[in-house]
Amino acid sequence: MATVSTVPSRWERFKQSDFLYYFLNDKVAMFSFAVFMVFLLTALFAPLIAPYNPYDLSSIDIMDSELPPAWMMDGSAQFLLGTDDQGRDILSTILYGSRLSLTIGFLAVALQLLIGTIVGLCSGYFGGRIDGFLMRVADIQLSFSTMMVAIIVSAIFKASFGGQLYGEYAVIMLVFIIGFAEWPQYARTIRASVLAEREKEYVEAARVMGFGSLRIMFRHILPNCLSPILVISTVQVANAIMSEAALSFLGLGLPVDQPSLGSLINIGFTYIFSGSWWITAFPGIVLVILVLVINLLGDWLRDVFNPKLYKG
């Protein structure tokens, strides 16, 4: 009697994959992923975890401003990491600030991915004048730094609509600025992959079968370009978080009433010479650790997807 072979599920294939095997045998990758998940979960559940709500003015007392951490002299057990110049709990503002920073980072990278994928696919697949034109646009875009784009856009927006309206839409503006400034990284990477894929037999077979260019690009070529996209996305999330922090530190990002890691560092920098070092030190440490673990994960992904580099 013939036995019927069962097709393994996606979860079973994942458990048997080399990706999971390499991950479980790399302590740095597991530790970095665990730390990142802690940041992500505490940011998502900040309203439930944070001792106070930094957006709730009724819970903030200006008399509690610049209190040191609980273990220092004059510290209060109510505020484990101390308070800022407005009397807000540092721990709570870090949790809410991480939430904003991660949100801006992921959304900005999503915008970069959308623009860069479309440009890179069209450039690599069609070639010729289209390739030349799109790559020259990418070169022009790369000549403008994120800071320069932020200064120009924020100055125009504030002059046209006022600072109050800019504060209300600061998150959207930062996502747009960071996303629009960094898309050429994706476009160049995807273009290089498409140039290597478009001459392969499966693409020629799709053309012979009469499939349209859009279907070939997005249904056939793009799935084979996911490895470099995943690697660059991990690195770009860290870069986007750093860009947001730098812009907020320079006063071009989120306003002081919307705590992000960058704006918290900016607030505390004013008071660091007066002895209130904790206002900027703790958000700075969190920012460094967050960016570090994301970069470590990105390096590991790069090595795993390139067998020539991975040493196990």
TrEMBL record:
Alphabetical UniProt keywords: Cell membrane, Membrane, Transmembrane, Transmembrane helix, Transport
Q: Could you confirm whether the keyword Signal appears in this record?
A: no
Give the family per the record: Belongs to the binding-protein-dependent transport system permease family.
Q: State where the protein is found.
A: Cell membrane
Extract the InterPro entries matched here: BP-dependent_transpt_permease, MetI-like, MetI-like_sf, OppC_N
Q: How does it sit in the membrane?
A: Multi-pass membrane protein
Annotated protein name in UniProt? Dipeptide transport system permease protein DppC
> Could you list the residue ranges that cross the membrane?
28-50, 104-126, 138-157, 163-181, 225-256, 276-298
Report the residue ranges that make up the ABC transmembrane type-1 domain in this protein.
98-298
Q: Which GO terms describe its cellular component?
A: plasma membrane
Q: Name one Pfam family in it.
A: OppC_N
* GO terms classed as biological process: transmembrane transport
Task: Give the species.
Answer: Vibrio palustris
